[in-house]
Known about the structure:
It contains 13 helices and twelve strands. The protein is α+β, with helices and mostly antiparallel strands. An eight-stranded mixed sheet has the order 2-4-3-12-11-10-9-8, with helices on both faces. Strands 1-6-7-5 form a four-stranded antiparallel sheet.
Amino acid sequence: MKELKTFIGLLLLSFVLTPSQAEEPAIRQDYITGALSSFPYNRHQFAEVAQPLALSQASVLTANQQIIVDLAKKAFDDDSFALGMMLVDRGQILFEQFKKGTNHKTKFFSYSMAKSLTAMTVGQALCTGQLKSLDDRAGIYAKTIEQTVFGQATLRQLLTMSSGARAPDEAGGSLFGEWNDITTSRISIDDLLKKYGNEKANANVFSYNNSDTNALMLSVNGAGNFAKIFEQKVWQPSQPEQSATWLTDKQGQLYAAAGFGAVLRDWARLAMRSIALLKGADGPCMAEFMQQATARQTSDTVKPRFWDYGYQTWVSHKWGVPVYAWQGAYGQSVIIDPTHERILIMFRYKAQEASYRAVGGLFSRWTRMPAQ
C-alpha cells in the first residue's frame, strides 16, 4: 500500500511539475488550493474548535470602505489567476469572493506564507521557556543538524534568513528536487539540511532559504514539540471554523517553510491572532517578539525588493504605517495593517504583475484612510 501511494504521488507530481504542464490553469488551480492538503501527501491535521471566532459580514459600509471594496472587486475580477480574496476591517468582513471552483470550504494551500506561522511558533517556544535565547545556536536544540551550517547559526540568524548557508539552487529558496523529495517521502528534513554541509558563505547576510525556516522547526522540536506548540498557542487560540493541514516529511515533521492549508476565513483568523499577539494578548514577552518579528531586521542587498524582512515575515513602512505580510509563490498574500487592524488576503495560482500593482495600490490607499 505504501508503494502504491508513493507511485500515485509521483504520478501526480509528474503532471503538476512538468514544465510543459506548469501553465495549465486546471492543474495549477488544483495544486494550490488543496491537493497537497489531502491525498496522497503526508500531512498533519489541526482540528477546528467548537466555537469559532465570529467573523460577521459588514452590513453597512462607510464611504471609505465602499471605495476599497470597489477597488478590491475590480482587482479580483480583472485577475484571471485569482482564486479567493478577502478584506477584513477590525474583525468585520468587507469583501469575500471566490472563483474557479473554490469556495468557503476550500483549504487554500500556502507556500512561503507558512514561514510567518513558523516565526510565531518560535516566539511562543521562546516565551514559554522551551527556547532559552534567540542568540543560542540552533544545534543546541537540534542535535541532528548540530554540525551543519544551520546548527551553527543562531536562532536569530535563522529567523532573519541570515544563517550563512550557501545560496539555494532555486529563487524560491529550495535545493533542486527538494519539493519532490519531501512530498514523496524520499528524504527527511534533517537529511535535506545536511546537504548544505557546514561551510559558511555569508553569515548575517540575507539569503532567502527554506532550510533556515526548517532549521527553526527542528530547533523547536528539540526543545519541545513544534506541531503541539503551534496548535496550542497559535492555531487553537485563533478559533478556527474548519480543520487545517500542514505538509510533513517522512518522519512526520512539519515542513515549516511551506505547506500549510486552511480555509480563507481561518487565514483571516490567524492574521487577527497575529495582531492580538502583537498587542499583548499573550503577555509582554510575546508582544516584544512580535514587535521584532514585524519590524525591519534586515534587507535583501542583492535583489531589489519593495519589502524588508523581520522574523520570517516581510515588513514595510512605505505605506505610511507599519505593515507586515505573509507571502508565498504565485502571488499568495496576507497583508496586515496592525494599526488599523486591516487585513487583505489574496490567493492566486499564478503571479501577475498587474495584480500585484492593483492589490498594492489598494492596500496603500486603505492604510491612509481614516476609519470613517
